[in-house]
Amino acid sequence: MTRPSTRGGSRTSADRLARLLNLVPYLLARPGIEIAEAAGDLGITGRQLREDLELLWVCGLPGYGPGDLIDMAFDGDRVTITYDAGIDRPLRLTQEEALALVVALRMLAETPGVANREAVERALAKIENAAGDLVAAPVEVRLSGDSQRVEALRAAVEGGRALRITYYTPARDETTERVVDPLRVLMVGGRAYVEAWCRRAEAVRLFRADRIDAVTELAEPAVVPPQAQPHDLSGGVFRPSSDLPLITLRIGRGERWITEYYPCERVEADGEQWLVSLRVTDLGWARRFVLGLGPQVTVLAPVELAEQVHAAAVAALDAYATPAPDLAVPRDADPAGTAGSR
């Protein structure tokens, strides 16, 4: 079966917006042009051009009255722009805009898990060619973390191979070895992750690339069970649920950033302080988290966490209060151990 030609017929929002921005100055330079000729120049069908012109009729300056909207006159199959609403020149990027767009596309091209990398590279080549010297500055884009490890993870996903990884879990402060069947490599919050079926946990897990201490591609193929489904990460990696421990803190002004960085279930003002409740993966992580904060933080709940923080703080203070042993050698000592050998 022959696929119908789609030359210039992309109806994506981005394609159409770019076409509309250039359509008015194009028609201004060619008053009375035939619609068929204009459609041929623009690489679209006559029907698409007519639909674009109908859309332009309701576009214009704020106020959107009769004197604000783009206007045009038709004479049979010919069209002439009679009011351009200020869109009288083709779209041009400033140097800063062109450079920002190139950097963003280069970053996207380096991002693991991008489905159509070739399309990104084609778009990047077109913009770099059109911008010319505007983007001639030596800009190199690299992902944070171990790029070789990310490439190894990506190769395993594309090759359908199982992996043996050594992984550090900061929440439990432990390192484990696991065999996983990778599903995909992706970027979330600027960090690379591999999502995989973990045979040890018998569930889908998300492993951060920079916490994988070692990775070995196995000869056996990845075997992903039917129930293994990728997670919806549109809201971020951490997904608080009702079965996770809930902690409540009283924080001062200097720690209010917590409410912006972590998903909180409750934030209430208590005079100059705030009462904050949030879910955590486990109390061990919460203990280390609270100990790393300033003195304006008090644990209100649960009692177990308050006791753990108190005990750890007392132990740390005791360690500082204990004088270091005096390792200096007394002047009358015999360092060679020869006393009495004479």
TrEMBL record:
GO cellular component labels: proteasome complex
Chain ranges of the PafC HTH domain: 15-128
Keyword Oxidoreductase tagged: no
Domain WYL residues, every copy: 150-216
Keyword vocabulary terms for this entry: Proteasome
Pfam families cross-referenced by the UniProt entry: HTH_PafC (PF19187), WCX (PF25583), WYL (PF13280)
PANTHER family, sorted: PROTEIN PAFC, PTHR34580
Protein name: Proteasome accessory factor C
Organism: Micromonospora nigra
Lineage per the UniProt record: Bacteria, Bacillati, Actinomycetota, Actinomycetes, Micromonosporales
